[in-house]
Design a protein that fits this description.
253 residues; 7 strands
């Protein structure tokens, strides 16, 4: 880590078995102070306390609805008062939707985009100026293999479209913010064992999914968290606008 104090913000990291919590731990292990933002305030504080206890870094668990501009501004004001300046942002907050396109409602479509795309915009737009002013920043988007292969795993069209929107968001942002010392990359997980996917990983369904994965297993949250942490290093400053697949080879392209 740089000798300058750095805080990493991880959104949607309140779930006990989620990628966000694993990422918070991995970043803390690498020396980052960590701010956990989540719709579930109790979950956010639990993750923050867990990370602080395990790694001895400063943390904050803050309630935040990324779809609500006022909520984001309030959360970031609390963060600014509690921790050093933000050097990394992990846009992990998201929701999935398995609803087929011919059955999807306008409300369902809007909700999926509100969390995955508008939510990422709301917080990135408010964090990026400070990064640019300080001349250093690392932004990582959590997209999905569904965005690249066109669904077919868990998410339907709304989810795949929103996660693909994140890829375009990240690539264009990388071009604009590169001169300011900020890198912007995406991580596209495949089948990861989390609370969201756990119920689908049983019996024949699990066997069929694993049959298409060359390494022969589903992914673990640490597989994704370790890659995110690598992309957030100061030493990773020449990597930007890239999309990294974490899928055990299930979507080689």
């Amino acid at each position: 880590m740089s000798t300058d104090p750095r805080t990493a913000v991880v959104t949607g990291a309140g779930s006990r078995r989620g990628i966000g919590r694993a990422t918070a731990h991995a970043l803390a292990a690498a020396g980052w102070h960590v701010a956990v933002l989540d719709l579930d305030e109790a979950g956010a504080k639990e993750t923050a306390d867990d990370v602080a206890g395990a790694h001895g870094v400063r943390t904050a668990g803050i309630a935040c609805d990324v779809t609500d501009e006022l909520s984001v501004e309030t959360a970031l004001a609390t963060l600014d008062a509690a921790l050093p300046p933000v050097g990394a942002l992990v846009n992990n907050a998201g929701i999935t939707s398995p609803v087929p396109f011919l059955e999807v409602t306008d409300a369902e479509w809007d909700t999926v985009f509100a969390v995955n795309v508008r939510g990422a915009y709301n917080i990135t737009r408010r964090v990026a100026p400070g990064m640019a002013e300080r001349g250093f920043g690392r932004i990582v988007f959590l997209s999905s293999v569904s965005a690249e292969r066109g669904g077919g795993v868990f998410g339907g069209v709304a989810y795949s479209a929103a996660k693909a929107g994140q890829l375009g968001f990240a690539r264009a942002l990388a071009r604009e913010l590169g001169p300011s010392g900020i890198t912007v990359n995406s991580v596209a997980p495949g089948l990861i064992d989390t609370d969201i996917t756990g119920g689908a990983l049983e019996g024949e369904r699990k066997e069929a999914l694993l049959a298409g994965i060359p390494v022969g297993r589903n992914g673990r949250v640490d597989d994704v968290a370790d890659l995110i942490t690598f992309l957030c290093r100061p030493e990773s400053g020449y990597i930007t606008g890239a999309t990294y697949d974490v899928n055990g080879g299930s979507h080689i392209h």
